Amino acid sequence: MAQGLIEVERKFIPGPGTEERLLELGGTLEHQVTFRDSYFDTPELSLMRADHWLRQRESSGWEFKCPGAAGVSGLHTEYVELTAEPAIVAKLCVLAQEVAPAKLIVYLQRFRPQDYQRLLEVHSSRENPQGTKDADSSLD
């Protein structure tokens, strides 16, 4: 069975004095890399809200990162990273398909906005008391 590469990334914030301590221990700066990423999304930030990240990295092309483990919600520890432009376009085409809202939701929005707002408030407080879920999108 062929084995692929696995990238492990761990981020940390060095404490005060870390650089000085590394120098004391004989550490040296081997090389430094600086790059610029430009991130792209819809005006509603639909990609970022779904934990998807489309970026163009200076001098290395397009990258698209999305959660890797199906059915996992919340913070992700595994992502799929696409770098081939045809694969990125194919994935975005699947995500950009608009889902029409339910007829009742449209009716309430147009003709009974006060009831629609109350529905959002009740749904939001039941679904997630901390307010981290977008209640409006889950009602569509």
From TrEMBL:
<dbReference type="InterPro" id="IPR023577">
    <property type="entry name" value="CYTH_domain"/>
</dbReference>
<protein>
    <submittedName>
        <fullName>Thiamine triphosphatase</fullName>
    </submittedName>
</protein>
<dbReference type="GO" id="GO:0050333">
    <property type="term" value="F:thiamine triphosphate phosphatase activity"/>
</dbReference>
<dbReference type="GO" id="GO:0000287">
    <property type="term" value="F:magnesium ion binding"/>
</dbReference>
<dbReference type="InterPro" id="IPR039582">
    <property type="entry name" value="THTPA"/>
</dbReference>
<dbReference type="Pfam" id="PF01928">
    <property type="entry name" value="CYTH"/>
</dbReference>
<dbReference type="GO" id="GO:0042357">
    <property type="term" value="P:thiamine diphosphate metabolic process"/>
</dbReference>
<feature type="domain" description="CYTH">
    <location>
        <begin position="6"/>
        <end position="91"/>
    </location>
</feature>
<dbReference type="InterPro" id="IPR033469">
    <property type="entry name" value="CYTH-like_dom_sf"/>
</dbReference>
